[in-house]
């Protein structure tokens, strides 16, 4: 079973580029999307020509903002949205599908903003989201994927020294938040398979030719419950795929 996660930076934009060709080539059994930037009916409309997938989307109240979706060949037992936290549940940031052996959660974690004005909200989010995942995990193993908006270690971004405690996504508070997920038994699958692999990123700024120079950040993850790790065969970052400022990441079960 191949699971792919991709922050598409606008579903309506990416379907006009390489999206359907990408699906044909990579053949995901489940494709999790972040930043759909569309209302539910617009997501369905954008994906109207896609055959063979059940489509579930969670949209923000604010139009053209945030949003997540799960496209799956196998119909889930159950699908639900959000994390039961009023302050976080207006932005369509979480979609969860329950399968026989696991919960699959896709997430678009709030960005702390360039001036770090949302850092407090972000810490609050991290704590609530971890509680939500652990509650699910008490019933069956969890796979959580998506844009976590944080580079966890220095190896996960091209210029750690220049960004540490200055840039959203690499402050100590955000790093600690990510460490809390890992310390709670959610394994970063890519680092599990490739602990030392450098220059592997999933997001690049549109400025300054960052992608061409590979001045990037690894901020998109697949985390899995420790107990589920033996079922994970491989993990990958698909830096060859363009169409968004993020590239897809994947695991195979």
Q: How is this fold's topology laid out?
A:
Elements: E1 2-7, H1 11-14, H2 19-26, E2 30-34, H3 40-46, E3 54-58, E4 68-72, E5 78-81, E6 94-98, E7 103-108, H4 119-137, E8 142-147, H5 160-163, H6 172-183, E9 186-188, H7 189-193, E10 203-204, H8 210-213, E11 216-217, E12 220-225, E13 234-237, E14 249-252
Parallel strand pairs: 1-2, 7-8
Antiparallel strand pairs: 1-14, 2-4, 3-4, 5-6, 6-7, 8-12, 9-12, 10-11, 13-14
Helix pairs in contact: 4-6
Helical segment count = 8
- Element order: H for helix, E for strand: EHHEHEEEEEHEHHEHEHEEEE
**Order of neighbouring strands in the sheet with most strands:** 3-4-2-1-14-13
**Through-space gap between termini:** 5 Å
**Total count of domains:** 1
Total number of β-strand segments?
Answer: 14
What is the CATH C level class, in words? Alpha Beta
Please state the CA-atom Rg, rounded to the nearest Å: 17 Å
Unreliably modeled segments = none
Approximate shape: globular
Helix and strand content put the structural class at alpha+beta
Sheet having the most strands: 6 strands, mixed
Helix content: 10-25%
Average pLDDT: 97
Report the β-strand fraction as a percent range.
Answer: 15-25%
CATH homologous superfamily? Endonuclease/exonuclease/phosphatase
The CATH topology label is Deoxyribonuclease I, Chain A
Give an account of the 3D structure.
The radius of gyration is 17 Å and the shape is globular. With 253 residues, the protein is α+β, with helices and mostly antiparallel strands. The chain contains eight helices and 14 strands. It has a single domain, classed as Endonuclease/exonuclease/phosphatase (Deoxyribonuclease I, Chain A, 4-Layer Sandwich), CATH 3.60.10. Helix 4 links the parallel strand 7 and strand 8. The strands form three sheets. A six-stranded mixed sheet has the order 3-4-2-1-14-13. A six-stranded mixed sheet has the order 5-6-7-8-12-9. 25% of the residues lie in helices and 25% in strands.
């Amino acid at each position: 079973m191949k699971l792919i996660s991709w922050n598409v930076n606008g579903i309506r934009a990416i379907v006009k580029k390489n999206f359907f060709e990408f699906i044909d080539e990579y053949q995901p059994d489940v494709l999790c999307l972040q930043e759909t930037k569309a209302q539910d009916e617009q997501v369905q409309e954008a994906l109207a020509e896609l055959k063979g997938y059940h489509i579930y989307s969670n949209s923000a109240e604010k139009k053209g903002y945030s949003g997540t979706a799960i496209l799956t060949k196998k119909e889930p037992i159950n699908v639900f949205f959000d994390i039961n936290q009023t302050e976080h549940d207006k932005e369509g940031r979480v979609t969860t599908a329950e399968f026989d052996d696991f919960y699959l959660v896709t997430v678009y974690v709030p960005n702390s903003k360039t001036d770090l004005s949302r850092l407090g909200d972000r810490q609050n989010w991290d704590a609530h989201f971890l509680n939500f995942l652990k509650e699910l995990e008490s019933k069956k193993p969890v796979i959580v994927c998506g844009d976590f908006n944080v580079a966890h270690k220095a190896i996960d971004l091209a210029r750690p020294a220049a960004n540490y405690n200055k840039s959203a996504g690499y402050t100590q508070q955000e790093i600690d938040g990510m460490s809390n997920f890992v310390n709670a038994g959610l394994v970063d699958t890519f680092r599990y398979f490739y602990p030392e692999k450098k220059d592997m990123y999933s997001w690049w700024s549109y400025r300054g030719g960052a992608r061409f120079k590979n001045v990037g950040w690894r901020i998109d993850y697949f985390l899995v419950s420790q107990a589920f790790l033996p079922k994970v065969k491989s993990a990958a970052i698909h830096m060859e795929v363009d169409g968004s400022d993020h590239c897809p990441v994947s695991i195979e079960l």
